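dumping the sequnces here before i forget
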Amino acid sequence: MSQRTSLITGATDGIGLELARLLQTRGERPLLLGRKSLEELALGEHSAVFDADHYCEADLSREDCAESVTAFLERQGIASLDLVVLNAATGWVGPPGGLPGDGIERLVQVNVSSQVALTHALLPRLEAARGQLVFVGSIAAGLPAPEFAVYAATKAALEGFARSLREELRGRVQVQLVRPGATRTGMHAKSGLKREVIDWERFPPAESVARSLLKAVQAGSETLTVGAGNRMLFAAGRYLSTPLDWAMRKKQS
Ligand SMILES: NC(=O)c1ccc[n+]([C@@H]2O[C@H](COP(=O)([O-])OP(=O)(O)OC[C@H]3O[C@@H](n4cnc5c(N)ncnc54)[C@H](OP(=O)(O)O)[C@@H]3O)[C@@H](O)[C@H]2O)c1
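..and the predicted 3d for all of it:
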């Protein structure tokens, strides 16, 4: 049997990196995307995960990101993709007006526009394999949380895109959406949220979230919120005013 061809965005850190490592321990060689250079990754502790044949440097904040990815796939002679996990995202915790410079546009570009552009660019290869296209959302899409408004808006937009696309592509490509809850990755620090104010150590590690994500992919789940507690939180988000804040922040004694 020929090997599956998978592609993961945001594979240089957190959940995406753990997904890459999990697939590699199963004997697969997924194609990995990130904004870091291969030279930089070669100096890091996970250097063994990355090599020139399987790593594509593409910054999703750039409008030409999809062209870079297509050019890489052409160079590597990849004609079909069995699995694409659009996992890369960037966060922001703070009031919308607090984002520096063109920050709002950058967040929308990375979390929404680049996902749409990559979907469009990768579709012929996904259709060739009747493959699976997995979007990584967030429970933030359905939970009111102060200072998460811009990030939550991008994740809600992504959900809307995935839901309609699923119907458009039914029978040709399977569109799946996985919503992690708070996960112990570097994302919070990169988003400007100080570790002291959140229960970071209590969050599940990226490796266990990556495992749940892969399980959902294999089970063919159309939409999965990772973790029973997160499923309850997501449902409660329709009725309560600040459940995400309550779940993430350290309780005052
Ligand atoms: N952590 C959470 O609590 C949480 C909760 C719900 C949903 N999620 C979702 O889970 C997914 C993975 O997040 P994570 O927690 O694993 O975050 P993470 O550790 O920060 O990893 C995000 C990945 O995306 C990459 N990335 C960010 N901006 C990029 C850009 N402009 N171009 C290309 N790549 C870029 C990062 O690259 P660098 O290595 O260069 O930073 C990294 O590889 C995201 O979709 C996130 O929204 C996370």
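Residues 10-16, 34-36, 59-61, 87-90, 110, 136, 138, 180-183, 185-187, 190, 206 surround NAP (CB under 6 Å).
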